[in-house]
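FIELD: query
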Amino acid sequence: MKIFLSILAFISFTTMVSQESGFSERDLSVSPFVDGTLLLPKKSELPPLVILVGGSGPTDRDGNQQMQRTNCLKYLAEGLANKGIAAFRYDKRIIKQMKDRTLNEESIRFDDFIKDAEDVIAYFKKANSFSKIYVIGHSQGSLVGMVAAQGDVDGFISIAGAGQEIDDVVVDQIAKQAPGLKENARKSFDDMRANGVAQNYSPGLSSIFRPQIQPFMLTWMQYNPNEEIKKLTVPTFIINGDKDLQVQVSEAEKLKEAKPDAKYAIIKNMNHILKEIQGDDIENSKSHNRRDLPVMPELINQISDFILQ
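FIELD: result
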């Protein structure tokens, strides 16, 4: 069984001139846990900045994982930079820990990802080099960025973000993909909430309930996107694609219901990794290893219009 939601799988500049004429790139370290790439538009002295927060699993700054190469965050950052918007994207801390061989699954907490996003925001606020700062959270990064953006930023954008607590999202996915495991999954999550641990889970659900990652899941479950998005006092934009197999449009609808004043867009034919899909689910799945596919221009246009308005 394949469950689409990947649960765990979570200043000295080196300057390079991009192949694109509209921006330059700088690799930098924000903290001991955060390395990333900053794209700076060439024609703007004080541009707005977007901070891109990646999705679940060991996701690098480009939006890639070991078995999934999409370059979705790289292409999104480049598209926005060509619109005059600076963009910083970064490797999740588990990427660095894997490279350093210091990764300990049992020590990972959801709050670590929030802390990293907050550190990035503070870093660029201190630099005082940008007219405004926006946070863009993709997938799991939507909730991470949503919490981090409750500080001192100018706007927040959710792309393919869940509108329910993660246990409810996972149970809904299991109900569609493996209905026979739904009841066991619900009971196991309830045990985690009540007792801090789930023990009587089906072997078919071990990728979710392995003892090593239960502490991470438990901390993730403490955050309800419906409640967190209400705490935002800055302009907010909720985006989803109608070809997203991982996060249904209904999740975006829940976020919109929780924050009625947010801008809201469902992009036709856009999938979870921000690519255009005209065909069936097979084409959709294959796109997750197509680095050559660009992100949808409509996504770049809608985000840039929201920021530059």
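FIELD: remark
Residues 244 and 271 are 4 Å apart (CA to CA).
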